[in-house]
Amino acid sequence: MKKLFCIFGLSIFYLECSSGGENIVPVVESPPPFSAILSIPVNGSVCVEGQSSSSTMADVDFAWTLSKDTDFYEIIVTNLLNLTNISKTVKGDKTTISLSKGIPYSWQIISKSDKVKQTASSALWKFYLAGDGISTYAPFPATATSPTPGSSITAIAGKVNLAWIGSDPDSKILSYEIFIDMDVNKVYNHNMTPLKSSNPNLLVNVSSGMTYYWSIKTSDGAQSSFSVVYSFRVN
Q1: What is the dihedral of CA 178, 147, 112, 121, to 10 degrees?
Q2: Does the pTM of the predicted model rise above 0.90?
Q3: Range of the domain at 229
Q4: DSSP letter string over 211-227?
Q5: DSSP secondary structure letter of residue 172
């Protein structure tokens, strides 16, 4: 009985010591950043002038609202004619970037945090930077939405639906011509008879196991623009 009592007593002593020995500190995860709201240049605006620095270049002001749980921002400005990007890291809610005149651009803000890897993207806005002597502007180059550029997809009954976004700074009615082929050079040089559409989508015939290239010509009745060449593969 004495042995049992001693063992039982030691067990109680051990439990009491263990329960009060360590304080567990809860881990508090930092929240991800919120998306910024764009301000200027306004989406779809034309004749954005900026501060002219030469006959071909102008300094353009960009501004947005500060977003919650964000330490810094990355602004991405894209030349819509050749899809080249200018990227810049900014601590505040505005910056100035030198751009070529007479070119359509898109811009977007990526909110970032020093504490987490997650980021948040703003809306994507477009604008035309005014060019010397330019009074009217061609439509913005169309942007493909489906198939996702560079993706592999499965055709349905031997057909694939092409879809894109087109817009015009002068708010004119748009029409489209689609250049699509397995030969990228034909598409790049528009060396073929295009398929026509009055809507921003088109159902086309395709063959399995092949890679297709396509480009979109957007017209407003007076002027036109070409998108870059996109590609997709059919499973």
Answers
A1: 60
A2: no
A3: 140-234
A4: EEEEEEEEE-SS-EEEP
A5: -
What distances in angstroms separate CA 129 from CA 77, 143, 183, one per listed residue?
Answer: 12, 19, 34
Domain boundary among 75, 108, 129: 129
Structure tokens given for 43:
């989406």
Distance separating alpha carbons of residues 176 and 231, to the nearest angstrom = 18
The tens digit of pLDDT for each residue in 21-63 reads 567 777 778 899 999 999 999 998 886 778 888 889 999 999 9
Task: Indicate the residue type of 159.
Answer: K
Confidence of residue 11 (pLDDT cuts 50, 70, 90): very low
> Cα dist. 26→23, 29, 70 in Å?
10, 10, 23
Sign of CA dihedral 183, 187, 190, 193: positive
Q: Which residue has the tokens 């921002």?
A: 73
Residues 116 and 73 in one domain: yes
